[in-house]
Design goal:
alpha/beta, 6 helices, 25% helix, binds 6-phosphogluconic acid
Length: 227
Amino acid sequence: MPQPPDLHVVDDPAAEVARLLAERARSGGSIVLTGGSTPGVAYERAAGLQPDWGGVELWWGDERCVPPDDERSNYRLAKVTLLDRLERQPHEVHRIRGELQPADAAGELDQALEGAELDLLLLGLGPDGHVASLFPGSPQLDVEDRRATSGPPGLEPWVERVTMTLPTLRSAHRIVFLVTGREKADAVVRAFAGEITREVPATLLRLAPVRVEAFLDRAAASKLGAG
Ligand code: 6PG
């Protein structure tokens, strides 16, 4: 039975997520980062709280198919806000190579993930309900025999994507969303309070064996409970 998400509506959700990242970095294990514009502030604060990430194996849930120094790159976001601020780098950094052909980069990620355990998975939420680079109704949602796949974007930036598949994302021991801003309020209702549907990929995470946690600011949560 899918469990309802564990929702935390707080003034400063990035601070909560930074604390979770820093705790995980301190104790060691694997962390899966997300991209987009929301998580940078949490990454910066996590680096400040815990500058030694030597015990961490680092992954990304998805990547835009651009070179690593492109400003749209999810790797670049983490490099600038987190990695460049650390005193000790993660012992393994599994960058998704967005500069390759998408299918090749997905194949590389699929191979790298063989036998991997994902301790903490951080996710964002798209205004259309997408998660990682799994877009509403897309064929990538049905990929069950691979740990990673590639496909077209469903939203800006309009570049091909590489993404972990649903079985991989659902295998994480802890699944945490960070969502902020009023422009996400409708998506928050559909993702965390609506029915489980391929039209809102974030809902499909609720089929994971662990309970999904979401840290939301008041603006993002403003339509929850509004009926
Ligand atoms: C990406 C993502 C994506 C992101 C959401 C939210 O590469 O774009 O990883 O799933 O988390 O689109 O993005 P924002 O934080 O920019 O709203």
